[in-house]
Automatic annotation (TrEMBL):
Protein name, UniProt field: histidine kinase
From-to range in the entire protein, with total length: 102 to 247 of 247
Organism superkingdom: Bacteria
Uppermost EC category: transferase
Signal peptide coordinates: none
Keywords tagged on the record: ATP-binding, Kinase, Nucleotide-binding, Phosphoprotein, Transferase, Two-component regulatory system
GO molecular function list: kinase activity
Enzyme Commission no: 2.7.13.3
Classification lineage: Bacteria, Bacillati, Bacillota, Bacilli, Bacillales
Occurrences of domain Histidine kinase (ranges): 1-146
Amino acid sequence: TVESTVMAFSLLSDKREISLVWDVQLTDGDPSFRGDEERLNQLLYILLDNALKYNKPEGEIRLEVRKTPQELQIGVTDTGIGIPSEDLPHIFDRFYRVHKGRSRSSGGVGLGLAIAAWIVKAHGGRIRAESRVGEGTAVKVTLPRQ
Ligand code: ATP
């Protein structure tokens, strides 16, 4: 569930002194959402992991989850180093890494977002990122019901 992924994750962010702001609203009277729970947890984990890895000391991660009658919306926003606009169109490509030195030290190979995009596509959804260098990044996912 979203809850267990976020709980596990908050332990990690505590260690890095990064605060996790959890704004999850899942109650809209109709809880039915069809999806592969394991994959959706993996998706959430990839986005939170990046928000942690590329954050600044004492930064913040905001997780927003909303349900509407038509879709599930997930937003992960960080206060990290950001992504230059010329790199932004490529971050969902396999093995594409913007911050190479940092990625290597934290074990990244540039697959996380490619997997995230694949999971979103498999659910018929959309994923996009907005970013400002030095200010932070927001990744937004929309998944249709059914
Ligand atoms: P891994 O395969 O372990 O996920 P990774 O983090 O390098 O490694 P991706 O998750 O695919 O790979 O991300 C691709 C690149 O996009 C990263 O190397 C990083 O440079 C950049 N990036 C991704 N998320 C963020 C973020 N929240 N803030 C800044 N840069 C990011």
